[in-house]
Design a protein that fits this description.
52% helix; 100 residues; three-stranded antiparallel beta sheet; alpha+beta
């Protein structure tokens, strides 16, 4: 399987949040586990995606005014936010860098 440049940039951003060893282990773990066990409830209310986690926390992400609401993208952004350890502003900066 060949990784795209976008995938490689995303992995680089993830690696900045943690050490390279931990990030790679985390990516491998995320790909192997069933993440549905972590989720208590998913709420989609255009333009907001809310994930209520089984650990009692909540992640809220909102599509920007110049972006089209997408449930999958919202969930993936919330999942990344929950597990990356980055703040919302750091994530915004990294996503902007890797998607330009």
């Amino acid at each position: 399987m060949k990784m795209t440049d976008k995938t490689i940039r995303w992995l680089d951003a993830y690696a900045h949040a943690q050490t390279m060893s931990t990030a790679l282990k985390g990516v491998r773990f995320m790909l192997k586990k069933d993440i549905r066990a972590e989720i208590k409830q998913l709420i989609f209310n255009n333009p907001v995606t809310i994930v209520l986690w089984n650990d009692g926390t909540k992640t809220v992400v909102k599509a920007s005014s110049n972006d089209t609401f997408n449930k999958e993208k919202g969930f993936l952004h919330a999942y990344f936010e929950k597990h990356s350890g980055m703040s919302k502003s750091q994530i915004s900066k990294y996503f902007k860098e890797i998607t330009e």
